[in-house]
Amino acid sequence: MPGIWVFGERRDQTLELLNAGKNAAKALETRLVAFTRERPSAEEFIAYGADEVLVLPQLAEDQPLESYVPVLAETARHEDPDVFFIAATARGKEIAARLATRLETGLCSGCSGFGFDQEKKLLRMERMVFGGAAMQSLICTTRPQIATIPPRTFEPAAVQTGRKGTVRELQSTPSSAVKVIKRSPKAKEAVNITEAKIVVCVGRGMNNKEDVDLARQLADVLGGEVGCTRPIAEELHWLPEEVYLGISGKKVKPDLYIGLGVSGQIQHVTGIRDSKVLLAVNRDENAPIFEAADYGIVGDLYQVVPKLIEELKTALKV
Ligand SMILES: Cc1cc2nc3c(=O)[nH]c(=O)nc-3n(C[C@H](O)[C@H](O)[C@H](O)COP(=O)(O)OP(=O)(O)OC[C@H]3O[C@@H](n4cnc5c(N)ncnc54)[C@H](O)[C@@H]3O)c2cc1C
Asked: How far apart are the C-alpha atoms of 174 and 57, rounded to whole Å?
């Protein structure tokens, strides 16, 4: 049966996709279908807008998430969905690519918005290209139209009262040639920067690795986390790759972003431009970051940041 399908690795991602899917289902006059791995969340997803929830079979301990590809492909072949939205996590991207190959259809990766071709009843998918310098708008004419959507691109769907829907358990067996032999927690320093409400970002304006501590002190006063630009992580290895921000790094939407010695190249700004308030400290008044910033301090970060910390400590009484 046609419909808009959504698959998120986690509950919050599914809720965001349900919000995106709701608009698509309305415009294409079809149903909204969510996948879940946990039976108890099925009713919840219906309350958040799904017309039907398909419960995936449990994975064995040694099976990676990609083991769902055969189940998803088989179900799609039988039921012929119009659109399939998948959360663009590392595993989700893998699933989407494999699924598109199996179903011989197109895939729009990193979709950040969409419109509709009402005549052809197709989704027009939008995404950033050329390092964030341009937007691409594309229509896949093969079915289903598959798109990966980065987490936090859409707000989570709102709960609605009195909604009714159906729940169906899928019986197919998950399988993968890959077996998980060990799971280890990530190193402690690898914070989840995308969840942080306040992000202090270290740029190449910092002179050496020890000075990152200055950014950490500022983040601690504000209860935030420390992120960085790509060269700080990839070239200098002062901070882990999990915390560099930008088009090829993490995209963040904190309440406050503070850039310290960050020039503001488009590849970086693409990952931070949705911050609610953007403050930049840079000694070059012509630095491009000031074009994106709500507040700018032109000055040497080694003079500005200690003063900021001092003032904030007094104001916040920490
Ligand atoms: C395909 C591609 C993808 C990329 N993806 C990303 C990405 O995802 N994320 C990313 O960050 N970059 C990415 N880049 C790299 C990006 O183009 C920039 O090179 C990078 O963001 C610059 O980092 P920066 O601002 O730390 O350093 P710089 O550009 O060197 O800027 C340093 C800034 O610090 C200022 N400064 C120096 N000393 C001080 C001081 N004492 N006090 C105050 N200010 C000072 C300078 O005025 C300067 O503006 C990508 C590049 C390419 C080609």
From this structure: 7
